[in-house]
């Protein structure tokens, strides 16, 4: 069940514990004035269920406002809820009528907010904000560009949004796979009938072998290959134990998270074994994180950071407004998107750019 949002009250009417008036020039008040809340409400309602009964859904202002707070302040879901509890302006920003000390919602609901307001919807909202700022404020300001006019500077750049993962190495990846498989063996063996012998995983020996090479600052390639061979053997053995125990106990014992990681570990083992056998260091769709298998390594050749790990983003900046043109986990050549970005500039602003972008010539063709 969902009830349409009521109009948000003015910042001066927000009730604080000490009746202290809030600043109407605060950054969150200025930001709220830029957001098309009615359009957010419209998009939000399209993605809600049709149920007429049940617990009332949270408002679009609360959901979208919480997502903005999280990204703008670079917080975790838990820290976002805590920050809202402590800040008067943030509570007004998400639609509260007065200050409250209770948590506005459980941090687990942030996942549902992201599902109801996916990236496509966020882009539509961002386009609305840009269009609203581009519209003339009065009749005197009206100056529609002619067919031959060029206007604005388009700056095109690409960057990588870093993922929260440890710096990946093949050896650490195999060691992590082995540890997870050992946990699966423990889980499956606990459900077997009493008296059956637990499969040997050699976990202490495997751990010592990993640490002996991991602690070396610059181990030679022969030592690395020897360590890789050992870890591949441990992972192969543990995968065999898991398969046999699954045949006995069934798949219902392991959690969904363990099932997902088992699939990822099988692919990690296949990739690492292939690279070891063929003596190569690259492979298509190479997995570098078991918990986030979609993350890819992006070669950037920057000083001190030859590789970056995360999603690559191609953005355009016009008059201070940023638009995301392309985002992907696999590496891509952003220069191939230049013509499409120029056409997008024309579609959004009604004219072609008049100046050059960073190291890229922007023409009308």
Explain what you see:
This protein folds into 3 domains: 11-134, no CATH class; 139-162 and 296-349, no CATH class; 170-278, no CATH class. Strand 3 (305-318) and strand 4 form a beta hairpin. It has 12 helices and 4 strands; from the N terminus they run αααααααβααααβββα. Strands 1, 2, 3 and 4 form a 4-stranded antiparallel sheet that branches. The radius of gyration is 27 Å and the shape is globular. It has 365 residues and is of the alpha+beta class. It starts with 26 loop residues before the first helix and ends in a 16-residue tail after the last helix.
Fold topology:
Layout: H1 27-34, H2 37-46, H3 60-73, H4 77-86, H5 88-93, H6 109-116, H7 119-134, E1 154-162, H8 170-190, H9 203-214, H10 221-249, H11 256-278, E2 297-302, E3 305-318, E4 321-328, H12 338-349
Helix pairs in contact: 3-4, 8-9, 8-10, 8-11, 9-10, 10-11
Number of domains: 3
Give the low-confidence spans: 359-365
Strand content: 5-15%
Look at the structure and give the mean pLDDT.
81
From the alpha carbons, calculate the radius of gyration and give it in angstroms.
Answer: 27 Å
Count of individual helical segments: 12
SS content category: alpha+beta
Q: What is the terminal-to-terminal distance?
A: 51 Å
**Total number of strands:** 4
> What form results from the Cα inertia axes?
globular
Order of helices and strands: HHHHHHHEHHHHEEEH
What is the helical fraction, as a range of percent? 40-55%
For the sheet with most strands, the description reads: 4 strands, antiparallel
């Amino acid at each position: 069940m969902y009830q349409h949002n009521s109009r948000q009250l003015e910042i001066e009417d927000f009730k604080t514990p000490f009746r202290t008036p809030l600043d109407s020039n605060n950054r969150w008040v200025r930001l709220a004035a830029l957001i098309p809340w009615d359009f957010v409400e419209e998009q939000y309602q399209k993605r809600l269920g049709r149920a007429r009964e049940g617990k009332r859904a949270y408002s679009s202002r609360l959901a979208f406002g919480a997502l903005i707070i999280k990204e703008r302040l670079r917080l975790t879901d838990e820290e976002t809820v805590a920050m809202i509890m402590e800040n008067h302006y943030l509570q007004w920003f998400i639609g509260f009528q007065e200050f409250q000390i209770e948590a506005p919602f459980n941090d687990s609901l942030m996942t549902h907010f992201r599902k109801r307001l996916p990236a496509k919807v966020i882009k539509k909202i961002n386009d609305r904000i840009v269009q609203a700022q581009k519209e003339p404020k009065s009749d005197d300001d009206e100056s529609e560009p002619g067919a031959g006019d060029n206007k604005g500077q388009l700056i095109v750049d690409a960057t990588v949004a870093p993922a929260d993962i440890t710096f990946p190495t093949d050896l650490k990846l195999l060691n992590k796979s082995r540890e997870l498989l050992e946990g699966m063996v423990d889980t499956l063996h606990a459900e077997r009938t009493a008296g059956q012998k637990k499969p040997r995983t050699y976990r202490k020996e495997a751990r010592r072998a990993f640490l002996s090479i991991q602690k070396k600052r610059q181990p030679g390639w022969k030592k690395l290959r020897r360590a890789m061979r050992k870890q591949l053997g441990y992972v192969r053995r543990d995968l065999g134990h898991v398969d046999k125990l699954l045949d006995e106990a069934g798949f219902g014992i392991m959690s969904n998270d363990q099932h997902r990681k088992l699939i990822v570990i099988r692919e990690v083992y296949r990739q690492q074994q292939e690279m070891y056998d063929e003596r190569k260091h690259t492979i298509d769709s190479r997995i570098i994180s078991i918990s986030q298998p979609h993350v890819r390594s992006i070669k950037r050749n920057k000083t001190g950071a030859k590789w970056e790990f995360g999603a690559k983003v191609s953005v355009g900046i016009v008059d201070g407004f940023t638009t995301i043109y392309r985002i992907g986990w696999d590496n891509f050549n952003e220069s191939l998107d230049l013509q499409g970005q120029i056409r997008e500039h024309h579609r959004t602003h009604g004219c072609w750019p008049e100046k050059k972008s960073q190291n890229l010539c922007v023409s009308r063709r």
